[in-house]
C-alpha cells in the first residue's frame, strides 16, 4: 500500500489516505501516521479492504504533506556511496558515520525549499528513507527487515558552509524545510529489495545524481543494527540511508541551488518529490 498524509485543497487538518493509482481514499483513522504505524497489525486488513474499494478523491484534488510531520528521530548516514566518498575526497569509512536532522527540517514532498538568510550554500542529496515500523533495540541485521514499515523518497538538503563550520554536521543539515520526504510511504511488502532501486536527482531538468541503492557501502540492515545498538528505534522514526555522487558542492565550478531552481528526486517504485527553491523572507 501507499499511505499518504493529505489535506483537501480547501484546507483543514491533515488526514491519512491510501493512494491507488490516481485516487486517494481516506483511511478513516483518527490519529497521526506514527500512531497508525504502531497500530498497523490491527489496521492493515481494514485498510486493504478500503484500498480495494477504489472509492475516493482524485489525487490531483488534494495537497500531500510530509508522510510523517514530526518524526521522533531522524538519523542520516554520511559517506555511504563510493562515488560520493570519492568526490568528497575522503576515505571510505570503516565505521558508520551518523548525524541527525531536526524535526523542524521536515518538509512536504512538493513544498518550497528555503534558502535561509545567511545560508547561501545550499545543496541537494537524494536519499532512500526507511520508516521504522515497531520498537526494537539490539536488532540483528538478519532481523532488520522486520522492523521496517516502509520507504519514501527524501532530500537531505544541506547548507554546506554551516555543515563544515565544525566537526558536527547536524546544524548544516537541519535548516527549516531541508528534509522534504514523500510523496507517501510505500509499505515494505511492496518493495521486494530496497537494495535494488534506481535513485536520481535533477535540477531544472538536468540529471545531477543517478545511481542505484545496490551501491550503498553499509546496507540498510547494517544501519538498523548499528543504530539500535545505541537506542530504541520506534514507529515513525526515519533513517536517511545515504546519497550517491553528483552533489553540487563537488562540481567544478561548484553549483549551489538558487532561488527558482526546481529540484526533483526520484526512486524506483516509490515515486518522486519536487521542490522549488525560495529565499527566506
From TrEMBL:
Domain Fumarylacetoacetase-like C-terminal: 73-276
Pfam family name, one: FAA_hydrolase
One term of GO molecular function: isomerase activity
Gene Ontology biological-process entries: carboxylic acid metabolic process
Keywords: Isomerase, Metal-binding
Domain of life: Bacteria
InterPro entries on file: FAH, Fumarylacetoacetase-like_C, Fumarylacetoacetase_C_sf
Family: Belongs to the FAH family.
Protein name per UniProt: 5-carboxymethyl-2-hydroxymuconate delta-isomerase
Record organism: Hyphomonas adhaerens MHS-3
